[in-house]
UniProtKB/TrEMBL annotation:
Signal peptide: none
Domain Hcy-binding as annotated: residue spans: 1-283
UniProt-recorded Gene Ontology molecular function terms: methyltransferase activity
E.C. numbers: 2.1.1.10
Cross-referenced PANTHER family: HOMOCYSTEINE S-METHYLTRANSFERASE-LIKE ISOFORM 1 (PTHR46015:SF1), ZGC:172121 (PTHR46015)
Record's keyword annotation contains Ubl conjugation: no
Name listed for the protein in its UniProt record: Homocysteine S-methyltransferase
Cofactors (names): Zn(2+)
GO biological process, one term: methylation
EC category name: transferase
Gene3D superfamilies: Homocysteine-binding-like domain
Organism per entry: Microbacterium trichothecenolyticum (Aureobacterium trichothecenolyticum)
Length: 284
C-alpha cells in the first residue's frame, strides 16, 4: 500500500472505532481487567471478524487489540510476545488496510482508570523501561505504524517520545484528551509539541475523550498532521467499569476536525461500524 504519510498529505484517512465495544455487542464479556485482550487470547477469530467489520464500514486504518497487552500487566509475561504478534497478524489478515499496532499507556495495564490521570508515581526513566520491550516486539511484528494512544500525562509523553526516537518506526501519538494529567495550562500543548518533534511521528492529537474536547485540543497542537478519535460522549466509571450518559453523532463534527488539521479521523470507545461508516461518508 501507499505509505500512510503520503496518503494523509493528500486527504483525511479514516480510522476504525471501538474494538472493545464491538466485541461486547458480538457477545463477549469485556468487563474484566483484560478487556479486549481476553478475546485476543481466547477467541482470536472474533478479533479478526471485528476488524473486518470496521474495514467494511470504511476504516482504512485498523488499530490492533494490543492496547492492554504489555509486560508487567495482568497477563503473564510469558504470553505477551505471542499475543502482541497475534494482534498485528489478525488485523493484517482482516482486510487490505493499514495496520497500526496499539500502544496503550501504563494505566491501561493497571486497569484502574489511571489512563485518565497519569498518576503512576513513575519517572521518565521508569516509564521508558516499562514501555520498551513491548514497543520493540510490536515494531518487529509487521505493523505499518504504531498507534501510541490515550497517553495521559506530559511525563509519559516524554518517555514515549524518547523511545520512539530511538525505535525509528512510523507512529502517531494521541493524548488522553480529558486526562487530568494535562490540567496545568499549556501542558497539553507542550506535550503535543514534544510528540510532534519526534522523527517518524506522522500525526499527533487526542482520543478517548468527549467529542467537545477535540477542537480545543487541536487548536493547541503544533502545525502538523493531527489525529482525532473521541468517544461517543458517554462517561466511563473506572470503579464500576460501566458507561453512563448519552451518545453524540461523531460524523457531524468530523468535518470541523478536518478543517482544523485532522488527517486521521475515527472513533474510540463506544463507536461502532455505523459510526465509522458515517464518518467516512461525511469526509467524502
Amino acid at each position: 500500500m501507499t505509505a500512510l504519510s503520503a496518503a494523509i498529505a493528500e486527504r483525511p484517512v479514516v480510522l476504525d472505532g471501538g474494538l472493545g465495544t464491538l466485541l461486547e455487542v458480538r457477545g463477549h464479556d469485556v468487563s474484566s481487567a483484560l478487556w479486549s485482550a481476553q478475546v485476543l487470547r481466547d477467541d482470536p477469530d472474533e478479533i479478526r471478524a471485528a476488524h473486518a467489520a470496521f474495514a467494511a464500514a470504511g476504516a482504512e486504518v485498523l488499530i490492533t487489540s494490543s492496547y492492554q497487552v504489555g509486560f508487567g500487566g495482568p497477563i503473564p509475561d510469558a504470553e505477551i510476545d505471542t499475543l502482541l504478534r497475534r494482534s498485528v497478524a489478525l488485523a493484517r489478515d482482516a482486510a487490505d488496510a493499514w495496520v497500526a499496532a496499539s500502544v496503550g499507556p501504563i494505566g491501561a495495564l493497571r486497569a484502574d482508570g489511571s489512563e485518565y490521570t497519569g498518576e503512576y508515581g513513575l519517572s521518565v526513566a521508569q516509564l521508558r523501561a516499562a514501555h520498551r520491550r513491548r514497543l520493540h516486539v510490536l515494531a518487529e511484528a509487521g505493523a505499518d505504524l504504531l498507534a501510541v494512544e490515550t497517553i495521559p500525562s506530559p511525563v509519559e509523553v516524554e518517555a514515549l517520545a524518547l523511545e520512539l526516537a530511538e525505535l525509528g518506526l512510523p507512529a502517531f501519538v494521541s493524548l488522553s484528551g480529558d486526562s487530568t494529567g494535562f490540567a496545568t495550562p499549556g501542558s497539553r500543548s507542550a506535550a503535543l509539541a514534544v510528540a510532534a518533534s519526534v522523527p517518524g511521528v506522522l500525526a499527533v492529537g487526542v482520543n478517548c475523550c468527549a467529542p467537545g474536547t477535540v477542537l480545543p485540543a487541536l487548536a493547541e497542537a503544533p502545525a502538523a498532521p493531527l489525529v482525532a478519535y473521541p468517544n461517543t460522549g458517554e462517561r466511563w466509571d473506572a470503579e464500576t467499569r460501566t458507561w453512563h450518559g448519552g451518545a453524540a453523532p461523531l460524523a457531524e463534527a468530523a468535518p470541523a476536525w478536518v478543517a482544523s488539521g485532522a488527517r486521521l479521523v475515527g472513533g474510540c470507545c463506544r463507536s461502532m461500524p455505523a459510526d465509522i461508516a458515517a464518518i467516512a461518508a461525511a469526509l467524502r
